[in-house]
Amino acid sequence: MTTNLLALETSGRSGSIALAKMPDSFETLRESLGPGLQGLSSGSFSLRNLIDPMQVLSLELDPSWGSAKTLAPAIQKLLAQDGLEPKDLHAIGVVQGPGSFTGLRVGIATAKVMAYALRLPVVAIDTLDVIAQQVSDTWMDRGLESVDLFAVADAFRGQSFWAKYRLGAGECVQTIPTRIDDNTWLAKEIAQQNRSGSCSVAGPSLQKLRDCHRDFVTAQSPTELENSKLVWEDRNCGEPRASTVARLAWRAWLRQQTTEPFGLLPKYYRSSAAEEKQTAELS
Predict the structure, then answer these.
(1) Mean pLDDT, the chain, as a whole number?
(2) DSSP label at residue 259
(3) Residue 240 contacts residue 132 (beta carbons within 8 Å)
(4) Is the pLDDT of residue 277 over 60?
(5) I need a labelling partner for 67 at 20 to 30 A (CA). Which of 27, 105, 214, 253 fits?
(6) pTM recorded for the entire structure
(7) Pairing outcome for strands 122-126 and 91-97
(8) Mind listing the pLDDT tens digit for each residue in 238-252?
(9) Which run of H or E residues covers position 47?
(10) Hey, which bits of 35-189 come out as E strands?
């Protein structure tokens, strides 16, 4: 018997899903970590080793269609590929935000309905945590030293969602929580950080920020741009993946950091364009 967690990543227009399977029961896995589970960091040796046996099957949603049309059929297809049915699931992990209003609503609504119908625990995962974990994994593989990471997601209208992390020694620690700012301001902040130490940027709004950063630094000092050690991570590394959501969800689930289905809501971090328009009209 396996313990199965379904992960949903719909922070963009499309997204992906993953099925993460562990060979032991949830209770056995928790007992193997002992009473110190709550104090273990996500990068701790014991917790990393516990997750190592995990088998992950993933499926990309059709990018030519929105997640509203593709998510449910994709879940059915992924489970069928492994000979499973929804009743064989034991938990659901879902990206809670920031991201696309529509994408987050679809993912959260699907997770809530399935969790309620199947009586499953739900684990909510921050989109920027997913990006940061993926970058952290690559830095470990490359044997690189610690770095400050700006995880960024496109908020459109010349803005980005972002959070700052410290990566190193297998750890991925958030140092500035998620916020939203203009790309021009954030590009200046990244330039300032790069002057004082190692710095990296990753996420869906990377190119927009890179353009703003280039314009800002060029206006200040062209030679600084040429000599900059700022790392703009590979695009694939910065696209949040359901397989990473699954790993983070498993870690949180083992700590019993779950959410009641009816209490699960998207984190938009700002009002929609329609809400902002309505507010402006009323003021």
Answers:
(1) 87
(2) B
(3) no
(4) no
(5) 253
(6) 0.90
(7) parallel
(8) 999 999 999 999 989
(9) helix 45-51
(10) 55-60, 91-97, 122-126, 147-156, 159-168, 171-182
Cα–Cα distance for residue pair 164/216, rounded to 1 Å: 20
Please tell me the distance from the alpha carbon of residue 41 to that of residue 170, in angstroms, as a whole number: 10
> CB neighbours (10 Å) of residue 125?
27
- Are residues 195 and 246 located together in one domain of the fold? no
In whole angstroms, give the CA distance from residue 22 to residue 9. 20
Q: Which two tokens stand for residue 49?
A: 């080793």
Give backbone dihedrals phi and psi of 17, rounded to 5 degrees, phi first.
Answer: -135, 160
d(CA 251, CA 171) in angstroms, rounded, equals 14
Q: How confident is the model at residue 22 (pLDDT cuts 50, 70, 90)?
A: very high
Residue 219: Cβ within 10 Å count: 8
Could you tell me which of 138, 25, 17 has the C-alpha nearest to residue 80? Answer: 17
Cα-Cα-Cα-Cα torsion 168, 170, 171, 172, nearest 10 degrees, comes to 80
Structural domain that includes position 227: 128-238
Number of domains present in the structure of the chain: 2
> What's 243's domain CATH number?
3.30.420.40
Task: Report the alpha-carbon distance of residue 279 to residue 283 in Å, rounded.
Answer: 6
* 22: DSSP letter: E
| 156 belongs to a structural domain | yes
Q: 147 and 247 in one domain?
A: no
How far apart are the C-alpha atoms of 202 and 162, rounded to whole Å? Answer: 10
What is the model's pLDDT at position 137?
86
Task: Kindly state whether residues 92 and 135 are assigned to the same domain.
Answer: no
DSSP type of residue 143: T
Q: Does residue 196 fall inside a structural domain?
A: yes
